[in-house]
Structure formats: structure tokens, C-alpha cells
Amino acid sequence: MAVPKNPNISDYAFVDPTPMPAEIPKVDEVGSTSAPLHSAAYFIGAYCKEYNEDFMLCKNENNDPAHCLKEGRKVTRCAIDLLRKLRENCDKEFEAHWNCLDTNNQEFHRCRAPERKFNACVLSALKLEKFIPDSPQGKPPIHLKENPLYS
């Protein structure tokens, strides 16, 4: 299932009918398969960095899943917001990239050409740049190599 342009919870096969406690803010589910999430992962990491860090700090405080529901909901809302912005601004490039990932076993190296177009669109439209942690110092990141093995 792809990232819908206007997600609607009823469009998904399984939704747990158990209501959340009143003190937990309501949030829709992301409603996506792995390919669009994999395609957008580095941008979600950059866009939602503060929420992700708060969530991880909360998880380190207490391993009880209920302890960090509020922080987790903020991360989910942020990811949904970014996915909507990607659809609004870079729909064609986003879809081309995640479709490539979907048909190539989620392997980035097999999808560098659509990835470059997608990255350029996201940089231009949303001012988000792809950053890969732990990339070797003094060398271009793998997604910016000029003559990659796969393109």
C-alpha cells in the first residue's frame, strides 16, 4: 500500500478499535508500506529530529511502552506532515524513487538515478538535505558519488 495523498484510517485493512486513553493525543497512523518510508527515511530523520530525540530520551528513561506514547505520537504526526509535504511538492520524484525501491528489494544502490531527482526536489522545495550518518570523512556520501556502480 502506497502513501495515500489523503490518508483515511478506514482505508487500511486493520485498525485496532481500542481507544487510547483520553490523556494521549489522537494521531492518525502513517498508513504506508515500507518502500515510501524507506525512501523518505533520511528526510524524516532530519525533519523530525527533535521529536525523535525526545522520544528516544523518553524510552531511555523508562522501557514501559505506555510511558512514551505522547512523544511517539508527536513523531508520528511529524512523519505524516512530511509525507504530505513530499506528496504536495515532489510527488512524481518521490513515487519514482519508492517504486524503484519496491521493485529492487529496498536497495538504495539500485535506485540512484531516481534518488538523485528526488533528493534535488526535496532540497529545492523543502530545503531538506539528505545526510547519511557515519559517512567516511573527506569522501562524498554514497548517494552523491559521480560514477556509482549502479545508477
From TrEMBL:
Main location: mitochondrion
TM spans (from-to): none
GO BP annotations listed: mitochondrial electron transport, NADH to ubiquinone
Gene Ontology cellular-component annotations: mitochondrial inner membrane
Subcellular location: Mitochondrion inner membrane
UniProt keywords, alphabetically: Disulfide bond, Electron transport, Membrane, Mitochondrion, Mitochondrion inner membrane, Repeat, Respiratory chain, Transport
Protein family per UniProt: Belongs to the complex I NDUFA8 subunit family.
PANTHER family the UniProt entry points to: NADH DEHYDROGENASE [UBIQUINONE] 1 ALPHA SUBCOMPLEX SUBUNIT 8, NADH-UBIQUINONE OXIDOREDUCTASE
Function as written in the Swiss-Prot or TrEMBL entry: Accessory subunit of the mitochondrial membrane respiratory chain NADH dehydrogenase (Complex I), that is believed not to be involved in catalysis. Complex I functions in the transfer of electrons from NADH to the respiratory chain. The immediate electron acceptor for the enzyme is believed to be ubiquinone.
UniProt-recorded name of the protein: NADH-ubiquinone oxidoreductase
Native source species: Acaulospora morrowiae
